[in-house]
Structures are given as C-alpha cells and as structure tokens.
C-alpha cells in the first residue's frame, strides 16, 4: 500500500510538526507501508488552470501524480481566517473530479482556536466527498496549546493521531479487500 502524508500549507510550522509526527507514528507501526511526505512548502506550484494533472510538469506533476498513485492520503491543514489554506484548495483544483475515488482520506487540523473545530466538517470533508474519497469519519484537531518547543506536548493528541492512523490503515485494507472481491466477480 502507498500512503501520502500531505502538509497542506506553505506557511507556519504547526501543521508540519503534526504531520511529521503522524509520519513517524505511521512508519514506526506500519513499516511495510510505502509512505511519502508531501510538504507544499517544499514545492513550487502554479495556480490550477483546468488542464489535466498529467499535463503539468515539474513539482505540480510530481505532487498530483503522487496523490493519484496513493491508496490513502492523510491531509494536514491549518485553519486560516476560518478556512482551509489556498495552496491545499489549489491541489484539489489541479486534480480530476474523481481523483480520490478508491482512496481513503483522513484529516489532521491545526488551529489557534477551538472555534475552528468545524471547518473540516464544513469545508474539507465536502471537497473530499465530492472527489469520491472514502473518509475516515473522525479527524484529529490540534490547538496552539498542544504544542511546546516545536513538538506536540499533549499526550492525548499523540494518542488520537495513533488512532487516526490505525483507522486509516484499517479502512484502506478493508476497502482494498472489497474492491478486490468485486473485481474477482468479473472473471477476466
């Protein structure tokens, strides 16, 4: 299986800290899973212009192709101005409508305030559903107070990240078994 851990912003450090921790927990518990960390801050990406994702070149082609080749994607996003950041939305715009069909998606949100808790429900989950992702129902919400000295200090957050990873892996495995069983019925 291939998993992509996506840092959905080009600014700030909290989301990258949370997603690096997520990647570490994932690779420690499931070393057999091929994992890739995509930090949007590391790539020069153009604005989406409606072309096919395979027609992009350079970083845009690498990022979109990596996502399209993944079995599961764990999306990390900060909340800015009560919304997901533009670079993350831009990635979704670069991908085809059914880009996440057959893929499992889970979410980690970092925010400065508990008031932003429902942004993932109101903005990110509808986009992922529209793109046909199989969503892990619960997501991890990490607040400013959960970080200290560039690390996640709150053990409950680490526990919730571990649980999110387990749920993501389990859903990906079960979904793959279901697809394989359905495909086996066609006898070709």
UniProtKB/TrEMBL annotation:
Pfam families in UniProt: FMN_red
Keywords on record: Flavoprotein, FMN, Oxidoreductase
InterPro entries on file: Flavoprotein-like_sf, FMN_Rdtase-like_dom, NAD(P)H-dep_FMN_reductase
SUPFAM superfamilies in the cross-refs: Flavoproteins
Source organism superkingdom: Bacteria
Group of enzyme by EC: oxidoreductase
Domain NADPH-dependent FMN reductase-like: 1-143
EC number: 1.5.1.38
GO molecular function, one term: FMN reductase (NADPH) activity
Keyword Flavoprotein: yes
Name this protein carries in UniProt: FMN reductase
